[in-house]
Amino acid sequence: MFVYHELISTTKEYMSCVTAVDGEWLAELCPMCFSIKESFESALKRRQMERLNAAALEKKMEERKRREEEAAKQERKKRLLLQNKELTGRSSAVATPGRLANATPKFMPKKRGRIEL
């Protein structure tokens, strides 16, 4: 395919400012004006490749979804373990008036041998 600027008609036709152009370039630059006719074989191969690409993409999406679900499941397990550690790590304190906040009264057995009045 050729693109020319000027056509000179004499006994013969002459073109000036001529450039060779690949048809695919025109279809790529202006798809509204130009299109490339596909042969039956190329159209068949294109459709087959599209199906294979769609199947591969779907498989990747399923794998990604499975990995995300697995990660969410692991995250839930971690949160539950942290909650259990927090609950078991807590100790109960006895509040006694007149003592420090964290201090608890200690049991002091009476000593034998003393007589208290």
Word description of this protein:
The chain has 117 residues and is mostly helical. The chain has one domain (2-84). It has 2 helices and 4 strands. The strands form 2 sheets. Strands 1-4 form a two-stranded antiparallel ribbon. A two-stranded antiparallel sheet has the order 2-3. The protein is rod-shaped.
Number of strands: 4
Q: What is the average of the pLDDT values? A: 81
Number of domains: 1
Distance between the termini: 126 Å
Task: Evaluate the radius of gyration.
Answer: 44 Å
Quick one: overall form?
Answer: rod-shaped
How is the largest sheet built, in terms of strand order?
A: 1-4
How much strand? Answer: 5-15%
Number of helices: 2
Uncertain runs: none
The sequence of SSEs as H and E is EEEEHH
- Main beta sheet strand tally, sense and closure: 2 strands, antiparallel
Tell me the structural class: mainly alpha
- Estimate the helix proportion, in percent: 40-55%
